[in-house]
Every structure is written in structure tokens, then in C-alpha cells.
Amino acid sequence: MPGSSKSLSADIPALPWAALSHRRVLAELVEAGWVPAGVGDWAIGLRSPDGSLVARVCPFDPAYAAFVELCRACPGNRWLPNVELAAELEGGGSVVFLEYAASVEPEVAEQLASRFRDGSGDADLDQVRDAARKIDADYRETMPWWDGFDLNGAHVRRALDGRLVFIDVFCMDGAALYGMILGDVAEVHKRMPRERMRYVLEIPYIARASSPEEIRALRNAWRQAD
Q1: What are the φ/ψ torsions at residue 148 (nearest 5 degrees)?
Q2: Which ranges of the chain does DSSP label H, i.e. alpha helix?
Q3: pTM of the model
Q4: Domains with residue ranges and CATH for the chain
Q5: How many angstroms from the chain centroid is the CA of residue 36?
Q6: Chain mean position to CA 78
Q7: Is residue 124 scored above 90 in pLDDT?
Q8: Cα–Cα distance between 95 and 44 in angstroms, integer?
């Protein structure tokens, strides 16, 4: 997920992304005036000081690289956000800077998700769907714990210019991954190098949804590979 070479917003700091963890990136952005604006299952969002951008900072989520690939495969497509910069971080995390988009009513989001799934006769939407299917097929062959499409309402938002955009369409099978960490962590590292998932236990979903006992069990299982 290489960085963009185009001229970037002045709000995006020039940092050595590959040398920084997601923890350091969060701290640097907050120090630069970016404001926490949302927490998902895999990532934390921060809004830029001028309000035009959002940074998606993630400790681990290989599925989002597929979405960035989709955006780059369909440049200028009105159903996708503009990506300013996407960079890999130390330990397997990532940061993606893209245009800010606000939440929409659930029925609006579901209507667009249905059009994506079923076809609509809209050439731009068809382009997104066709490109997404190809990317899904590629990742299904190469990415451990790939789970395909994830078109829930939270993944449709409204850009500042009024158009609806997808902010993600793919997902990992988190239940399978974290179940395997508990059951056979050695197999986990056979499927994916440890340096690419150093912060796999720091995704927001674990902090939000797990009991202290569940967190302790995951950490104990992870340490078995040390």
C-alpha cells in the first residue's frame, strides 16, 4: 500500500510512516490538531484540522489495502472517496488519508448497498462492483482469513460535496483469525509473518467487546510463540 506521489493536503504531516507504529501515528496526528472522530472494529478515525480529510489509523487490517486498491482501480469514480495517501506502518498497521464523509440514514445506506449487490444500470456503480469482484477473487486466493464483501450501513457515507460513497466494501474473518490465535498460534504464523501482525491484539473491537479474561487468554496464547 504505497504512498501517493501527488501533492498532499497541508494537514497531512510529512512523517516516516514505515518506521512508525499505529500508536505513534495516532499521537502525532492528535498533536498536529487532528481530532478523534470515530472508532470501528479495526481502526480509529481522526478528522483533519480543516475538516476536509479523515485519517484511518489501524494496528492490523489487511482487508483495507484491498479497498485502497479498489479506489485506485477506479480513479474519479463518484461512488468512491478520494484517497490522499495510504501508507504501511511498522508492525503491519496502516494509515489511510481520504476525503471526509459523514454518516447517512440506515435506509439510504442499505438502498445503495442493495444496488451494489444486485446491479443498477449505473455505469460508475457497475465499474466499482466489477473491480471489487476481481479484487475479491484475487484476495480470496492469497490472503489468510479473507471474508469477502462487507456491505453494512456503516460503510456508506456522504461526502462533503453531497455524493454517497463507500468507505469500505471488504472484510477479514476476525472470528476465524482470533479463534486460531487461541487454538494454534503456530499455525497463525505459518500463514502470515509475525512482523506483519505485531499489533493484531490492539484492534478496537477487542478492547471494546472482550472481557478481561478474554483479553488475557489472547495475550497468553500470543506469547506462546515467543
Answers
A1: 80, -140
A2: 22-31, 63-73, 106-118, 123-142, 174-183, 185-191, 204-209, 212-223
A3: 0.92
A4: 17-101 (3.30.200.20), 106-172 (no CATH), 174-223 (no CATH)
A5: 16
A6: 20
A7: yes
A8: 10
